[in-house]
């Protein structure tokens, strides 16, 4: 029987030379493993103290929405440029392989005071720090990050000023 670790496939030099890309989408082809993962993420203590989840475009949405259902927490989203209508807050940040920016709808943010961030993978920590900056600038509390995979060698955790829970560290 397959294990979660077996479903994280490394592609060398993707999308750029020198990057070991971790493809985790195969997890979705094994519902019993996906379910076990979601149950683990949803039972994390960090969620108990948060009013809502914020999940990050795009693979973060897959895991975030399943955790939102399982934990009965509301979810809002941080999206890439040009995707969200209405009044938005936007910040740019550096990625392991390039630049990106993320936006949050002001209307969605207004309803909640404390958040757990959910994403698929923690690399340098730039993405998560961008979201936490957006939240903290609006005087929202960030209770922590729950991620499926953490890449230890990039030391993202050391740049994050709140608790980090990863299901797999590699
Ligand atoms: P970072 O901001 O460096 O922590 O990067 C985290 C975000 O970029 C996550 O949303 C990942 O989906 C993506 N990412 C960064 N590095 C990798 C990698 N080596 N393999 C897969 N996804 C990655």
Automatic annotation (TrEMBL):
Catalytic activity: AMP + diphosphate = 5-phospho-alpha-D-ribose 1-diphosphate + adenine
GO biological process: adenine salvage; AMP salvage; purine ribonucleoside salvage
Top-level taxon: Bacteria
Record has Magnesium as a keyword: no
InterPro entries reported in the protein's UniProt record: Ade_phspho_trans, PRTase-like, PRTase_dom, UPRTase/APRTase
CC annotations in GO: cytoplasm
Compartmental location: Cytoplasm
Sample GO molecular function, one term: adenine phosphoribosyltransferase activity
Assigned keywords, A-Z: Cytoplasm, Glycosyltransferase, Purine salvage, Transferase
Functional pathway: Purine metabolism; AMP biosynthesis via salvage pathway; AMP from adenine: step 1/1
Enzyme class: transferase
EC number per UniProt: 2.4.2.7
PANTHER family (alphabetical): ADENINE PHOSPHORIBOSYLTRANSFERASE (PTHR32315:SF3)
Subunit structure: Homodimer.
Family per record: Belongs to the purine/pyrimidine phosphoribosyltransferase family.
HAMAP family on file: Aden_phosphoribosyltr (MF_00004)
Biological role: Catalyzes a salvage reaction resulting in the formation of AMP, that is energically less costly than de novo synthesis.
Name of the protein described by the UniProt record: Adenine phosphoribosyltransferase
Organism, scientific name: Prochlorococcus marinus str. SB
Gene name linked to the record: apt
């Amino acid at each position: 029987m397959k294990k979660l670790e077996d479903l994280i496939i490394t592609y060398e030099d993707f999308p750029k030379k020198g990057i070991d890309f971790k493809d985790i989408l195969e997890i979705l082809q094994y519902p019993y493993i996906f379910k076990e993962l979601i149950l683990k993420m949803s039972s994390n203590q960090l969620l108990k103290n948060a009013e809502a989840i914020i999940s990050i475009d795009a693979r973060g949405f897959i895991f975030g929405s399943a955790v939102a259902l399982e934990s009965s927490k509301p979810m809002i989203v941080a999206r890439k440029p040009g995707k969200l209508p209405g009044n938005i807050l936007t910040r740019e940040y550096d990625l392991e392989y390039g630049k990106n920016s993320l936006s949050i709808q002001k209307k969605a943010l207004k309803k909640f005071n404390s958040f757990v961030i959910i994403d698929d993978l923690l690399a340098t920590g730039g993405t998560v720090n961008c979201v936490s900056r957006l939240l903290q600038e609006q005087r929202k509390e960030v209770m922590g990050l729950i991620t499926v995979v953490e890449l230890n060698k990039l030391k993202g955790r050391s740049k994050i000023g709140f608790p980090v829970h990863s299901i797999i560290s590699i």
